[in-house]
Amino acid sequence: MGSGFLRRGTGTARWTAALAATAMAAVLAGCGSGSGTGAAEGTLTAYVYGDDAVKVQQAAVDEFNKTSDVKVKLVSVPGAEYVNKLRTAMGSPNAPDVFFNWGGGSIKPYVDAGQLVDLSPHFQKDETLRRGFLPSIVEAGSLDGKVYGVPMRGMQPVMLFYNKSLFAENNLQPPKTWDDLQKAISTFKAKKITPFALGGTDAWTQLMWLEYLLDRIGGPEVFKKIQNGDSSAWGDPAVLKAAQTTRQLIDDGAFGKNFNSVSYSKGGAPALFAQGKAAMHLMGSWEYSTQLGKAPDFAKKDLAWTAFPTVAGGTGDPGNVVGNPTNYWSVNARTKHKDAAIDFLKSMASKEYSKALVDNGDIPTTANASQLLQTSPNPGFAEFQYKMVQLAPSFTLSWDQALEASKATPMLTEINKLFAGKSTPEQFVEALKALK
Predict the structure, then answer these.
(1) pTM higher than 0.70, yes or no?
(2) What single DSSP character describes residue 348?
(3) Angstrom distance (rounded) from CA 272 to CA 269
């Protein structure tokens, strides 16, 4: 979700799996099965996306190197260059032993080519790994029931943000049910306030609505089938119902009349929200830090948050979450130092590492994080977000990151057409079923 968008606050990159898979796939045929990655003897090379969170990873490397015979060398690659740099390196004798990724579709080409270490046995036998992370986060980064990534940055669930002053002025409570939501829509429309900000020029912002609606209506199993390669699952009645419900929101004016010309990545949607011209905003948890940076008075006085509401008759658990679980470290199957690599990845579960993430404004995905959140820049927001994910029966990875490029890119196109009124819900379903 979020092609090329850079999350404010912690700087975690939002890069779609579609772009990732496209960039990675080209190199796979040239990747041999040599005995090592080309790293110097006694050295592990770790590629990380270069942003302001790198200092946390560098500190972890420095600490690990104090006691390990095999030293980790962290290579921070500037965000704009990360895809190409990784692609080139993975096709050479100097491939990294460990590398940062987004899980899901971003690593599927490597998994299919047998180039990643299956970490499942290590999670099963090692208590640090098995108990160290929230289970929903580990599962969200897995493929075909196997674990290929260890969580290494903060969680990024999608949440329903709202303007608490506008709600109070109109005697409204944050919506818990779809009826509550419709009441809020009608109330704000009557006051000439757009119910929801939406950056329609960025299709991934529209995707969030379909992700949550499908989950609430049909449960996470529907998309799980799709993610596992069953395109016919797009024909599940819950998909059509989600598309129809989305279309109804659009027709009812829930997003206003001009949302297709509003940008999120250029700040348009957050500005409408912060200025009180829109009452709510469905967005990733980075919306808090975005508003804190751009509209600090609004963030401190009026910004509030809640979970996505239930949908009557739906089978999805109201505790389910969608979004970007976190970022992951994966291990190259050709590394000469697999045991050392695993030891380094285990350090991501340490209290010291979690504390460093919290101090940087992130919410760790470790099982021990809850005791550290009081030191967060906003403890209330941090605790709500952590518990939301901790208690989630399911955390569905953003569809555009969970699917491969050949499906994610046309899917986003079809979502944009649905929102723009260029296709009906029925046409939307048929187009997605045709994705092979």
Answers:
(1) yes
(2) G
(3) 5
